[in-house]
Design goal:
It is a single chain. The chain is an alpha/beta fold and 357 residues long. It folds into 2 domains: 192 residues, Periplasmic binding protein-like II (D-Maltodextrin-Binding Protein, domain 2), CATH 3.40.190.10; 147 residues, D-Maltodextrin-Binding Protein, domain 2, CATH 3.40.190. It is built from 13 helices and 9 strands. The strands form 2 sheets. Strands 4, 5, 6, 7, 8 and 9 form a 6-stranded mixed β-sheet that branches. Helix 5 packs across helix 13. The longest helix has 25 residues. The protein is globular and about 55 Å long. The relative contact order is 0.18. Bound molecules: spermidine (SPD). Spermidine binds next to strand 9.
Length: 357
């Protein structure tokens, strides 16, 4: 009878502990179990083996979703249907999200691997002291082209793209700031110009490019270029690096009139439900070996100084993708131009896209 009673008491204690444990497992206090973390990132922008590694090391299940523009990401976060724990916006959007009070200040004490980031990428004007964001990847906007498909022609200028011999040869990135920016730069204007007359001129100039534009695409640009189905692409540098790894005939150039220097950083939206796990994930991605593996996979430029030693030399020493601070100083970073101006850029881009059809 005594034995039965002690078994019963032990059973009750185990059940209570289990119940208490279940509560623990759900409240994100750092215990492995049924915790989840929802990450929202650009398409083709992570080595998914690293997600598995993070899940294995922490017991946190990652739900991973992708977007293809900063604007799409913002809309989804503002709608609030899904609550994201980590997102990866670009600089001007980070500024906009800070102003709109959509981001949570980061706890740097939970991000010891932040020491791995090159100081050059810290404390930038869109997020002083990295209060809300930490570097993930960076790069430029430029032209990838295949001289073999262009009769040996070399390109080094935005204005080269208007050459009538390039009919149906060009892929454009599906991004309002990039395409309108290309029109502005080709006319000698700033990428952050808000003068309506200049913007109209840029749009008119872009309309003249229409016969040369084969398609306006997202990540599909990579396959089209790799397989020699397109000769030229205006794109982000990392996509060019990826393409060039598959097709050695292709080259990448940052046009001489100037171009965009961009930064994609990790943030925690204010609505995040798993703040501690979000910090764990960000810190994991900042680890030198993890960042090196991720960089080799996605081919974008890493701001993680400690990671560079684990990456192939030819990758890190390629000045097209790791340009010197001297060159990057000549490039422009997008500014948050405010809701009205950003909407105007989007409208012009939409008009340009519709005009093509
Ligand atoms: N396929 C991943 C693309 C990520 C590119 N981010 C660049 C943002 C530039 N504003």
């Amino acid at each position: 009878m005594k034995k039965l009673l002690s078994i019963l008491v032990a059973g009750l204690l185990v059940s209570a502990a289990l119940l208490y444990g279940v509560h623990w497992l759900n409240n994100d206090q750092g215990y492995a179990g049924d915790k989840t973390l929802t990450v929202y990132n650009w398409g083709d922008y992570i080595d998914t083996d690293l997600i598995k590694q993070f899940e294995k090391e922490t017991g946190i299940k990652v739900v991973y979703e992708t977007f293809d523009s900063n604007e799409a990401m913002l809309t989804k976060i503002q709608q609030g249907g899904t609550t994201y724990d980590v997102a990866v916006p670009s600089e001007y959007m980070i500024d906009k999200m800070i102003q709109a009070n959509l981001l949570l200040p980061l706890d740097h004490a939970q991000l010891p691997n932040l020491k791995n980031i090159d100081q050059r990428f810290m404390d930038l004007p869109f997020d002083p002291k990295n209060k809300y964001s930490v570097p993930y990847f960076w790069g430029t906007v430029g032209i990838a082209y295949n001289p073999k498909l262009l009769g040996g022609k070399k390109l080094d200028s935005w204005n080269d793209l208007w050459d009538p011999s390039l009919k149906q040869k060009i892929l454009l990135i599906d991004g309002a700031r990039e395409v309108i920016g290309m029109g502005l730069n080709s006319l000698g204007y700033s990428l952050n110009d808000t003068n309506k007359a200049h913007l109209q001129k840029a749009k008119e100039k872009l309309s003249e490019l229409t016969p040369n534009v084969k398609a306006i695409v997202g990540d599909e640009n990579k396959l089209l270029m790799q397989n020699n189905e397109a000769a030229i692409a205006v794109l982000w540098s990392g996509d060019a690096a990826d393409i060039m790894g598959e097709n050695e005939d292709i080259d990448y150039v940052v046009p001489k009139e100037g171009s965009n220097l961009w930064f994609d950083n990790m943030v925690i939206p204010k609505t995040a439900k798993h703040v501690k796990a979000a910090h764990q994930f960000i810190n994991f991605m900042l680890d030198a070996k993890v960042a090196a593996q991720n960089t080799e996979y996605v081919a974008y430029s890493s701001p993680n100084k400690a990671a560079l030693q684990y990456m192939p030399k030819e990758m890190v020493e390629d000045k097209r993708f790791y340009p010197s601070p001297g060159l990057t100083k000549r490039l422009e970073v997008y500014k948050n131009l405010g809701q009205k101006n950003l909407a105007y850029y989007n409208d012009l881009f939409l008009e340009f896209k519709m005009h093509r059809k």
